[in-house]
Amino acid sequence: MPYPLLTAPLTIRSLTLKKRMVMPALHHAYTRDGACTPRFSSYYWRRAEGGLGLVIVGSCRFDGYGAKINSMSLADDSTVPGWKEFTDGMHRRGCPVCVQLFHAGRYIPRRDVPCGQPALSPSATYTPYTRETAPEMTREQIRQVVRDFAAGAVRAVAAGFDAVEISGSSGYLLCQFLSPLTNRRADEYGGSFENRCRFPLEVIAAVREAVGPDYPLFYRLGADDLVPGSSVLEDAVRFAPLAQAAGIDCFDVTGGWHESRVPQLTGEVPPGGLFFLARSIRRAVTVPVIQCNRINSPRRAELALALGDADLVGLGRASLADPDFARKVTEDRAEEIRPCVACNQGCLANAFFDAPITCHTNPVCGLEHRTPDRPAVRPGRVLVIGGGPAGCEAALRCAQYGHRVTLWEKKDALGGQLRLAVRLPGRGEFERLLRFYTDMLPRLGVEVRLGREGVPGEDLSLFDHVLLAVGGAEDPVSLPVAPGAVPVVSAREVLSGAVIPGERVMVAGGSFIGCESARFLARQAALGPEELFYLTAYAVRPPEQIGALLHTCRRTITLLEPGKKVGYGYEPGVGWPVLQELDRLGVVRRPLTRITRVGPGGVTAAVRAPDGTEEELYIPCDTVVAAAGVRPDTALAAAFRTAGTPVTPIGNARVLGRSIDAIRDGWAAAVRLSHPASAQLK
Description:
Number of strands: 28
Low-confidence stretches: none
Radius of gyration: 27 Å
Mean pLDDT: 93
C-alpha cells in the first residue's frame, strides 16, 4: 500500500525535507560528558541511512544547570568540532539533523547538576519527580538562561545542525514558567497568562535573533500538561500563535509531564489517543506541526496526515525498533517493519536510571557500533528448536547472516510466551511482533516446521549448529489445599482462556504476573471499549451513569502477596498504570499476607503486622489463581548433551529472563555463531 503523504516533501523555512517522517529527540545516554561518541554517531547514522526525512537529536544542554552530565552538550565552543563531525556524517547519508536545546529546570536533582549548584525553578515548588525543592530563579538567572539558550543555538549552527528545536514540553523549565502550578512569581514573569509566557517568548526571540531570519527554528510544545492545576490544551492554543510570532517555524507537539498520572507512551495509550493535541495546535498556527506519541505503524501515521491532524509525524520509538521504517514505507515494504510494542522496557525504563537505552524488539539498538552487518564467516546449517521469542529472533538473525536455517516448534503456532502477553490489557501490540516473526521467517528462507519437537538422542548430524530455545518451565506454586477446596488454577490457564473464573477471585502472588492477571480479570468484568462506545454514542444511559459503569468491576478480586510490595518485577515507569487501574477497578491489594489454607468456601491467610505478629484472615472466594512465574528449563539441554548432541541453550532454556532478554539472547547467539571473533555485544 502506498503512503503518498508520508513520502511527500515539505519545506520549513530554508530546510526541505524529502519525507514527512521525523525521528524526535529521545534521551539515550550514548554521549560521554556531553561529547559525541562512536556509539551515538553509529546509532543515528544508521537511522539516517533508513531514509527518515529529519532526525532531531537531544536532549542537549547549553549551560551548567539544565541537563544531566551524559546529555549532549553545546555548553562551550570546545564541543563544536565533535558535533560537526557527527552532522557531516548525517549529511553524507542524505539526512538533515536538528538539535533540541533543553533545560530541565527543577527536574534535575541537585546531585546531577553539573555545576554543583541547586537546580533552577520559576518558583520554589516541590517536585515529586526529584523529591526536592529548587529555589526561585532571580531575574539575572532568567536573563542568563536566555543568553545561554541563544549561545547554544549559535554553536549548533557552527556545528552543522540544520535546525534548532527549543524544548518546551514534559514539565521542563519553559513549561514550568507557563504553568500556574509551578510559577507562583509575583513579578513580571508570573501571575497572569501573559506574564507566564514572557520567559519562553524571550527565549524564542533571543534564539531567533542569534540564528538569523532564515534558519529553521522548531519548538517542542507540551500541549497539555495532564497534571491537575497545570496548563491545559486551551493554554497551549493561546501560546502557540505567540510563539510563532516570536520566530517559531514548526511545532513538535506532545503532551504530559513526568509526574502526570495519565499514560502517554505505554501500551495503555491507543495509537492516535493523543492526536487531538496536534490537531488543535495545527488549527491555531500557520506553520507546520509534527504529531508525536504512539505512532508506530505507517497506516496510523498516514491517517494523521490525511485527516489534517498534522503536517509531519514523529516516529520516536518506532525508529528504535526499526531504523529502516521510512525506507520500507517508501519501498512499499511496510509489512517488513519490525514493530514497536509500546512496552517501554528498554527505552523509558532505562532512561529513568540514566542508563543507555535499548529496544525490546530490536536488540541492535544502541549497539550498531559493535554489531557486524556482513555475512557469516562460515555460513552453515542451523537448527533452532523452539519458536518463542528467543528462537524466532535467533532464526531470523541467522538467516540474515546467510545461514540455512530450520526452526522446529512443538506447538501449532510460533510465539511461546508472547501468545499469552498479547492477551494482557495494554499489551495488544505484541500481536504485531508475532505477525512480524511469522511473516518474516519464511520470507528470509527459514524452514518453519510446526508440531515438531526436538527429542534427545535423535540424529541431528545434518545440522552444523543446534540452538535450543525451548523456553522455561512453569514454576509450580505450592498452596495448602484442603479436601473439597475451591479450584486452584494457574495464571496461564486464565490468560489463555482455558478457565473463566466467577465473581470472587483470589490471586496468589503480587509480582507483575499477579498484577497483570488481576487486571486481566478485572477488565474482563468491566465495561469494554465497544460497550462504552455503544452506551455513549447512542445515549443508552445518562453520561454520569456511564462514567460510573466505566469504573465498576463485576468481580471481587483480592491480590495477596507474602512480601512487602505488590507490583514488583516491573521496570521503572512501566508498572504504575497497572497498579492505578487495579485501584480504579476496586482490586484489593494485600501485601504481607500469606495463604495458610485453601478451603471449600475460600482462603485463610496470615497477615503480618509491623511487629512481626500475625493475624488470621478469612476471605471467601470461588477460585484461586496461582500467579506463578517460570524457571529456566535446563533439563532438555542436559539430556541432549548426554545423548551426544551438542546444543547451545538460549533464552529461558539458558537463564531466566523477560521476553526482552530472550530476544537479545537469540540475537547474541546468532552474532556469536556468525562472527565468533566479533566485539563484545554489551
